């Protein structure tokens, strides 16, 4: 249950509570259990009992304040009510995996690799997976379940070096940012700081762009060997065909104060080049009560069905597609949780976006895997002879002028993320956004959302396929229960996707 305390004298807070109450009404009409308990201040003082002083609000004047079941606090819901509605919908709709789902995932993504590890006579941490059968099993897992789990991935001394280096660098780490932070930055540092302080993502991070953090050289070499092995497997070769690049390792610590990272997809729009995500966990003596599992959902972002919860145990590597097939989140951590992540980049996709394109020419941001030739990787990414000719003329390390960027934009047909987002908007998406805006400016939510009943349902598009991957993933409706007909103008699973998810 989410406890919400609000200032009933504040008109903005009252409108926020009206919207929240209306959403709760539609959820209950759809057969869901209650998700929120509302308290008009000074009611609800008992909510603060046992709560750390740092989490208690300094003031509730002109505030809508919420306490989540995990102990996390949403401090200013009047500024962004959809954060609270996301949490309500999560409680209402997310379904844990059935025994059938667990067995299906284990049978493909976990057990075959574990059994191979035990059977390899010359195995041991960091060595058992370095042969064709391990690559084949990992590729089959990625093909069928979009995720593979490899335990004892590195030699113990490499793991210890990574762990000690990360802990020693904690003072240099900065708060991890969501996609919303980039948009907030354009509005100024105050707006950015507000976004960074939200509990959507609570880790602190440091990138080792030069690869010189302790343990990094051995870790990156092992990851490159794994990806090169996967590229030789027919099951995933097409998807990894132009994956010649990777970023530096990102070290992340989730403090043990319920910090988390809410449901998201790494490469949401399929524009930033990320194709494969690799995460190594470095948590000695991890126990279930410590939390911090990687929760993986069935495709796509609209799915409310959990596929599996992966425990972040010591020396466990998880690899999964960075695309809409693998929505995931980090559950609240109640003990400090350490992980190191690397993204493997598709050069061909990167050529189609300005920021991704420029990273290909910045060795401090992207490296070629397996010490591949940078020029050869660029030329391999090109689709046409015209593009190859243009890439031959460009210096391998370059910062481009605005005039040059304008020329490159036309030549490589760059697509801006906002344009891709606009293309994906359905009539119903726009109608819901307009309804929320009306409700927050004074119109009663029932009247505001009445117009969305006329909105057309999302259309399924037949997308062309390149290298076995759709250029754009179409979000599909979840197949679970729906609200009763009297509330079909507020479909249960449209709001979380359109408004509640931060990526």
UniProtKB/TrEMBL annotation:
GO terms for molecular function: ferrous iron binding; L-ascorbic acid binding; peptidyl-proline dioxygenase activity. The keyword Cytoplasm does not apply. Its cofactor is L-ascorbate. The keyword Iron applies. Keywords: Dioxygenase, Iron, Metal-binding, Oxidoreductase, Vitamin C. One of its GO terms (biological process) is cellular response to hypoxia. This is Egl nine-like 1. It comes from Symbiodinium microadriaticum (Dinoflagellate). The lineage of its organism: Eukaryota, Sar, Alveolata, Dinophyceae, Suessiales. The gene is Egln1.
